[in-house]
UniProtKB/TrEMBL annotation:
The keyword Transcription regulation does not apply. CDD domains: CYP164-like. It comes from the Bacteria. PANTHER family: CYTOCHROME P450 YJIB-RELATED, P450, PUTATIVE (EUROFUNG)-RELATED. Gene3D superfamilies: Cytochrome P450 (1.10.630.10). Belongs to the cytochrome P450 family. The lineage of its organism: Bacteria, Bacillati, Actinomycetota, Actinomycetes, Streptosporangiales. Keywords: Heme, Iron, Metal-binding, Monooxygenase, Oxidoreductase. This is Cytochrome P450. GO terms for molecular function: heme binding; iron ion binding; monooxygenase activity; oxidoreductase activity, acting on paired donors, with incorporation or reduction of molecular oxygen. The keyword Oxidoreductase applies.
Amino acid sequence: MRFDPWNPDFVAHPYRVYEELRRDAPVSYFEPTNQWLISRHADVNALLRDRRLGRSYLHVATHEEFGRPPEPEFQEPFWRVIRAGMLDVEPPVHTRLRRLVSKAFTPRMVESLRPRVHAIARDLVDTYVAKGGGDLIADVAEPLPVTVIAEMLGIPEQDRHLLRPWSSDICGMYELNPALEAQHTAVRAAEEFAAYLKALAAERRPRPGDDLISALTQVTELTEDELVGTCVLLLNAGHEATVNVTGNGWWALFRNPAELVRLREDRSLLPTAVEELMRWDTPLQMFERWVLEDIEVHGVRIPRGAEVALLFGSANRDQAVFDDPDRLDVGRADNPHISFGAGIHFCLGAPLARIELMESFGALLDRAATLELRQKPEWKTGYVIRGLRSLELTATG
Ligand code: HEM
């Protein structure tokens, strides 16, 4: 098999191909997406921190100057929302936007949310176990992070069911060479989401409550587009990967039953187990960067205007960094995985994600005496954002 992100067999088992890439072709040109694939941990890590690359080039050049076609006009409402969030801008705008919300996500701040995260996780898991199990993704993995981030931002309870579909439609645009229909769906979702948030902000601005959207409406240096872009980013990034770590993580434990037993018997392993599950089956397999100034990697010159695809899933299995990398070891002590990224865009929500994952894995281990797989799960079609369609389990209390 070769690198083929549209092939379901590759999406299900990318790790042999990654191993070959790391050994034989750490930098390789991939024609179908016109990108350079980077597969070794040291290179992925270094390029994420290298300021000669960026998540965007629009702060230094136009599409034309970068040799890229103009974007189709119908995509304008999508990019308007996405490029107003910190993830798709570079300094100095990035610095300003990140600083505005970073206080809400410091380890100390999110630690104060732990009791609430704990209570939500316990409620969801109790209901799940009481009905004998079901789809873990729909019943626990999704509602936990969605509820937490929605409460932080102040999304009314009756509207929260809208968040998952909007997020998943928007994420369709992040897959490689998305189909035209997926692009239209993403644009529509971005438009609806933006309209919803503008209306909510208009309500909160004159009568701010004790939530993040209210707080952002009081920041005069933030444009309305930036407010919307920030909220869309926080709401989407705030749950999408966490859902997949929960699903992929449990599926990893079922494929490694001795590690599940080990974790059941020694709950003090939870912190290292969460890191290891994020490493072993990385939820976000790839991130892209634009080359803003010529670079050279292993003797290969990659010119300004090119795009690199950083293979996180491969970096996380690199034998140069991880001992016995294909082994799942819930007690792995030295684990510099790259799943939260590196450099200036390092995941803002990492401390919150860690708390959510520890609380949800902990609740399931505490409340379910047994958890059994009902059927082998299937992967969704996406490669970049890689997760299971569902995870059907039988649970006993
Ligand atoms: C296990 C779950 C999560 C994973 C694996 C994850 C992963 C990542 C990664 C890899 C990036 C950097 C992307 C790049 O450099 O191109 C990122 C950025 C970001 N993440 Fe997370 N994330 C998770 C959970 C969360 C949560 C719970 C939040 C809550 C707010 C969040 C908010 C963000 C934000 C705002 C950024 C953009 C930061 C910036 O551009 O400066 N993430 N995340």
